[in-house]
Each structure stands twice: as structure tokens, then as C-alpha cells.
Amino acid sequence: MNGTKAVAYIGGKYSLHRSIVGKTPQPTPIIAFRTQQLPIAQAVAAAHVMDNWFRPAVMGALQTSDHRVRHALSVIIKATICRNFQRTVFDVSERCGAQGTFEHNYMARAEVCALSPKLVRNLITLLERRQGCHHC
Description:
The chain is mainly alpha-helical. It has one domain (2-110): Butyryl-CoA Dehydrogenase, subunit A, domain 3. Helices cover 74% and strands 4% of the residues. It has helices spanning 2-17, 34-63, 67-96, 107-131; strands at 19-21, 27-29. The chain has a two-stranded antiparallel ribbon with strand order 1-2. The mean pLDDT is 80.
């Protein structure tokens, strides 16, 4: 959830700082455009929802005595948070353009971190297939 908050903050600050000059000589911040507002508003909302949902969800998973249910709930929690972060970081970094990929903006690193679990799963599956591991 901290990653989603960071991405929302960086995208919001960038959108407030970056401006264009249109019909008037006054620069207009790009946050004034709906296409810029929506991904950032969704990132902020997702960060708040996940932040409020995470603790009760984990506590609910820990209160069950059945290890299978606990494992299932843990997988659901992890998948929900990871998938939400992947979608959010992609949408916001897309709105930040090339400057969002600069090292000091953290967006490229966050996007790689968001994709890492999926890449690792794909690599493990590929290695298992190459080794002929059918029981994995």
C-alpha cells in the first residue's frame, strides 16, 4: 500500500507541476485535464481503500484455525494488493510520460517491482517445464 501511496503522490505532484500554454498566456497545470485526473484520483482512492481493508483482512485470516482457509485468504489478500498495485502504477506512470521514468521519480522502479512477482512465476513455470517436472 505504501507503493500505491508513493505512486499517487508522485503522479499528483508531477501533474500539478507540469503545465502547458494554450489559448491564454497563463500556463495550465496538466492536472486540469480529465485524462490526468482520473488515474491519480483512482490511485489515491485505491491507496486509502487498501490501507483500511488490509488490517481487518489479515486479522480475519489469522483468526481461522484451518490452515487451508488461512492460506486461501492470504493468497486472496496478496493477489488483490499486487494486482491493484500493478494496474495503478501502470496507469499513473503512463500519465507522467518520459519524465516518470527518471530514476528520481521512482516510477520505473515501482513498475518493475510490480511486474517482478509475475515474471518470477513465469520463470519458475518455464524452468519446471524444461526439467520435466509434472508434479509441481
